[in-house]
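Weekly puzzle thread! Below is a chain. First person to post its structure in token form gets bragging rights.
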Amino acid sequence: MQKMLEGAERKACTLPAEATTTTATERGTRPGSPLADLGFNLLMSKVLHSIAAGLNEIPEYLQGCLALGLHVPPLAWIDDLTVPITATKPDQLERLIQAATSIIHMAFSQHGLTMNFDGGKTEAVVMYRGPGAAAHRTQMFDKETKPCIIVGTPSHILTLRVVASYRHLGSKFTMDADIEHEVTTRIATARQAFAEMKQPTFLNRSIPVQGRLQLYNSLVISRLLYGCAVWSDIPNALMTKLDAFLVDHQRRIANIGFWNGATMNDEDFRHHMELEPFRITWARHRLLYLRHIAVHGSDFHRQGLLMEFTYQKGWLREVVDDLVWLRSLIDLPFDFDENDIQWIPLWEAIAACPRWKSILKRACRKHVLQERIARDVKHYHNLIEEELTSHGYEIWHGEQHQPAPDLPNFGCGACERSFLTLRRHLQHMNIGFMALLPWNATTSSPRFALDV
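Winning reply:
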């Protein structure tokens, strides 16, 4: 009987391809129905257009967009809605928020939707800037009760909470756009995830080390780097903290640390395990997001990034360094001048590159291998020096210090070397030709020239 009902429902929801009629639902679609998501997206699209039309009728709102030089429409992610509002003066901001909230509430009501004003659901993140900002900030936040904005509509009296930060899908937005707070929150989330799965998974010696590291990347790093593609202007101290956080967990997984007498520093540990530093992983995520902007980016999104770039700061300014790093490792199918980069043609070239993800993956792997080879070369170079020194040879590393211009300078007529004292100059002239003689030669201090 249940199968018959399901079959009847599917038949009722089927429209012939040649039909010119459409379906309009009055009470929504059944949960789980194939038409549910489609119908809701169409409904939200209509709601967004209604809200945008209402906002465009507010003169103060249009003045704020004009002063900013950018018009950002209401944005939605499934059933979550955000409305950016800009005012030219601080005293206009609260009235604009009241007008926008009233417009959103009426648009939702007309389409059978209800706004949820509970804590953590519908809230306003307010930041005052410009002349008079301090006084309005004090008036808003410096009081005994929690700050809120009262909005009157023809049918309801609404109370909109004003908060300093808002969390959405794990990301935290603050009123002063402090990226440090977001990164600290992500570190805490990743640390909690590691602690929950540490004993059964990451420290389980029955699982190979490489397998545990892959699980760590999937279960912990994914939480740490959620949304990292849009991070910018991270302080160096915070970058060091991120690196230390990753290395600490990776050392525990590999069981290489001070607790078992390991003397390997963090850099050598990464090279030994062939692990990416945070800077390289972050560059890969940002370059992936760069292609997302090139393919799916909206005009206002690109325009905002370009406005920041003209002031020699912002997200695109940091991505230039990532592109230069990528070009140094991989032959890109396009060219660019980092000193005078043209983003519109570059976005078109990146959008037309179907192998962008594989290029980034190959570049990261090549970077790790090159760093590993360089570390091995340095290690064996030091071993050679130690072996030669232990057998009585003196290693010449070239001139380490340049003589001061006001000190006497004794140059050699046979080579380009110079000396501060006459004694060293005479020693050089007398024994310079014996530099490669064995230990039993006339000099008691054999020298060995090693090309570094």
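Puzzle host: Confirmed. Bonus trivia for everyone else. The two ends are 84 Å apart (CA to CA).
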